[in-house]
Design goal:
Layout: E1 2-8, E2 11-14, E3 17-25, E4 32-38, E5 55-60, E6 63-76, E7 80-86, H1 90-94, E8 96-105, H2 106-116, E9 121-124, E10 130-140, H3 141-156, E11 160-165, E12 168-173, E13 181-184, E14 189-197, E15 204-209, E16 216-221, H4 223-229, E17 233-237, H5 244-258, E18 262-270, E19 280-285, E20 290-304, E21 307-315
Parallel strand pairs: 9-12, 13-19, 15-17
Antiparallel strand pairs: 1-2, 1-5, 3-4, 3-20, 4-7, 5-6, 6-7, 8-10, 11-12, 14-18, 15-16, 18-21, 19-20, 20-21
């Protein structure tokens, strides 16, 4: 059953709730809930007052799934009020600044930002890798943190995940588990849409760096893909200062991501609270020949009464964006 509370110092006030949608997307900062709550009864008696800035806590069957801040609300007919709340990562997304980080680890960068912007945090893993990052242009705090984590992964090979846990930011090393939830037709998979396309496919990647007087150009190709689909070139003028070896590495990384038929699987299934964006899941669907691990790119969980359903956008590789 749905339980939604306003959290205040020393007390939790339960809010009568009709339904909740809980959503998230890989590398898109905050998770959020959209809650439809009972605002007044038929006689016009007002229930608990909810204001922007309130902390709300959402539990499902006694387990906490979300804690965050109310950012907006809208009254509707029938005594309902719809509110939107985001977790603490939202404060990294909405705030911008300039920073120079000399010889600082990603965890030190995160801790500094949290202290400067009064963002509560808890366990922050020591990332070990020392970085130099200069943000002289207006940049979101989230982009600063994501850049630090990507550069750490490039140097150490270790991936770290930033999340919001019980109203506080947390950084942990990503652990790959051999245990996976399974979605299977006739068991818990309700419906699916399976898309295949070459509209975003590249059989050739060309990147150009440097200035006009001393340009550096690298082109890499997928010969088998060109035989099948023709030349489909992805071109980018890179603003970063990269040497030829770095440019070649980025070109090959992009080609690996963009080559071949692009496949997208959207599913509707019985809800599993543990399945959120970035998590692996094993899919068995014989009609379209899908059998294996996919990763959740976007998740939308809908709760109403005692029913929980989820819509997932699934991808084949859980890779970060190239910077």
């Amino acid at each position: 059953m749905i339980e939604l509370f306003i959290v205040k110092t020393g007390e939790m006030i339960e809010i009568p709730t009709e339904s909740i949608t809980w959503t998230g997307q890989r590398y898109k900062a905050a998770r959020k809930i959209t809650a439809n709550i009972l605002y007044t009864d038929k006689g016009g008696l007002q229930y608990t007052q909810v204001e922007e800035g309130n902390t709300v806590l959402f539990k499902w069957k006694g387990k906490e799934l979300f804690r965050g801040t109310v950012f907006s609300k809208a009254k509707t007919k029938g005594g309902l009020l719809s509110l939107i709340a985001y977790d603490m990562l939202q404060y990294l997304l909405v705030n911008k600044d300039v920073y120079v980080f000399n010889k600082r680890r990603a965890d030190q960068i995160i801790t500094r930002i949290c202290r400067d912007f009064q963002i509560p945090f808890t366990s922050i893993a020591n990332t070990g890798t020392v970085l130099n990052q200069i943000h002289t242009n207006e940049t979101t705090l989230y982009d600063m943190v994501l850049t630090a984590l990507i550069n750490t992964e490039k140097q150490s090979g270790i991936r770290y995940n930033l999340l919001s846990e019980k109203g506080k930011l947390m950084l942990e090393e990503q652990k790959i588990s051999s245990d996976q939830w399974v979605l299977e037709t006739g068991v818990n998979l309700i419906d699916y849409n399976y898309f295949t396309s070459i509209e975003e496919t590249a059989t050739q990647v060309k990147l150009v760096s440097g200035d006009e007087n001393n340009p550096i150009s690298v082109t890499v190709s997928d010969s088998s893909g060109q035989k099948q689909f023709g030349v489909l070139q992805y071109f980018e003028k890179v603003t970063d200062k990269l040497n030829r070896a770095q440019l070649n590495s980025r070109s090959n990384s992009l080609l690996n991501k963009k080559k071949g038929i692009q496949k997208e699987l959207d599913v509707t299934a019985l809800g599993i609270p543990e399945i959120i964006s970035g998590k692996p899941i094993y899919v068995l669907e014989n009609e379209i020949g899908v059998k294996g691990t996919r990763y959740v790119d976007v998740d939308t969980h809908t709760f109403k009464g005692d029913h929980h359903e989820m819509q997932l956008k699934l991808i084949t590789r859980n890779t970060r964006a190239v910077l």
